[in-house]
Structure formats: structure tokens, C-alpha cells
Design a protein that fits this description.
mainly alpha
Length: 189
Amino acid sequence: MQYLATEIFTSLPANLRILSYSAIQNDTSLPWKYGDPLPPATMDSILITIPSSVPDSLISYALLPDPTSLPNLLIPVLTDYISTVTSPPPLWSTTRTTHCEICLRDWIPLTYHHLIPKKVHAKALKRGWHEEWRLNSVAWLCRACHNFVHRVAGNEELAKEWWSVERLLEREDVQGWARWVGRVRWKKR
Ligand SMILES: [Zn+2]
Ligand SMILES: [Zn+2]
């Protein structure tokens, strides 16, 4: 079955395989083409790209009564896929965590860190470092980790290189810091 899923996915049109929220912001034909419900013209263009080995295998596994029912099987899967990959990123106010996203301590007050610092928003847009919708993404960090992040890189470097928690955590100095500070239990006064 894994083979079939791969076979179907790789035969999809390229703009459907790489569909994303960012893509539909930049190409106004995409939301129409891959809307919900899927327009019949789109479905037709997808079906002609799927090799006949796919319905043949599905029939042999008794998962499909006949080749003409292939759309009924594919439509819900494709609709699901499209709505997942094109949904907008959550608003920062709804991403609040209960723990610091670097040291994972959950008993200390959190601050929010603009992953793309506000002071360089205009520059980031002008230079094409980021698209507008990404500018307000934030990480929830304890004060110690927040200060640490601003020590390891200046605003421009943060915006260009370290604009997600995942990226920050790829740095060895951040990993070492997280291990160290994560063990520190500050006494409440
Ligand atoms: Zn922390
Ligand atoms: Zn910050």
C-alpha cells in the first residue's frame, strides 16, 4: 500500500505536490484550481496522470470495484491533503505554550520572542527574506533563554538564519545552553 501511495503522489501535478499556504498566497489561480469541492476539471487533469497500474492494483486488492470508481476513492484523500497543506500558520497569540520552547522548563514566566525581530520587518520584506504572513511568528521563551537568543545573533542574523525554534535548536551553542539551563531550578523568592 505504501508503494501505491507513493505511485499516486509522484504522479500528481507538480503544483499540487508542492502546494502550500505560501504558494496559494502567491498564485491566485491555485485556490480556484484546488478548491473544496475539487473542480471536475482539476480531477480530470489529475486522473489522466495516474498510471493504470494504480487502479489495477487497487482492484486486485479488492479495494476498488472497477476503474471508474477511482475518483470516489481519491477525492476525499486529495481534499484532505489540500486542506492540510494550505491552512494558514496559527496566529502567534494561539501558539502560547506552557513551557519555554528552548529549555522546556514549565514553571517559570514566559516572554514572547519575535522570531523575525520587529526592527527588521521592513527590511526583511524589502529584501525578500520572508513573506509578510511569516513576520509575526513568535516563540515563547523564558527570560534567560530569550536573553541568550539575543546574545548569539543580532536582529538581522536572527531574521535571516534563525527564524524558527527548529532552526535555533540546530545550533550547538543553543543545544548546550538548553541542556545546562534546563537543569537549573531557580528558587522562587
Ligand atoms: Zn528557557
Ligand atoms: Zn526576542
